[in-house]
Amino acid sequence: MDYDQLIERFGGVVSTRQLLESGETTPDIRRAVESGAIHRIRHGWFRVPDADPEIVAAVADHAVVSCASALRRHGLWIPDHPVESHARVTRYERRRSPDRCRRHGRPTPAPAAVDDVATALQYAARCFDEEGFVILCDSALHHGKLSLDDLRADFRLAPLSIRNAIEKCNRLAASGTETAARLRLKSAGLRVEVQHHAPGVGWIDLLVGDRLAIELDSRAHHTAEEDYERDRVRSRKLIPLGYLPMRLTYAQVFGHWETTYADIAAAVRKGYHRNRAASGNRP
To answer: Which residues does the UniProt record annotate as the domain AbiEi antitoxin N-terminal (predicted)?
Structure first.
């Protein structure tokens, strides 16, 4: 086996079971250890010399990478969380590490050093609040990692609050910033359409009512000249079509939502979200 491939496939950390399933034999594994191609982390687990340090540390501590840390490796949009590195243990190590990520129900077996998306979401459901969990699920749906039916099936035995959160998910959400704004606006009783299509302009992240076109920036604000120009061309073209464009940044959603929403609410009170001229203070 070309053990360098393990870095790409498994983050450089594999179990004996994975090696055997890949076609290696017990003598092959022993020779690989003797030659230094792989190193034993603990019983049943090996690493290549350039293995990911976070994965190695988790396995050495009788755990596997899970929850947000695993989902980040799968390319999902991850909300901020006070815990930097997320790992979890199997039922055999549960008493030894009570402070690790946990799921609702019995722990899941760990066939790999990094959990798959479905398993990682099971553990994220307890680590994150409802908004954070929906952001993760939206990202999984948007990137085609799972379907809504998959989520419903995977969480069919979860608490009602988790099952209700799944029903708020939307695969069209392109970023966590968009998901958070959508959830907060809908919880305020506003009618919100996700990825509304404006002729000649393209897709609007969120449309409140008939006219209020909200565009969301993710963590990295569009600073490149082409992005700057494109965003302003979009806003310019939306106005003649009858839309009222409003662009929100990551910081305005996650750091200053109270004042951000106050401006949105003021626009709604004056009827600027309606498909006609502002009409007094009617909601």
So the answer is: 2-49
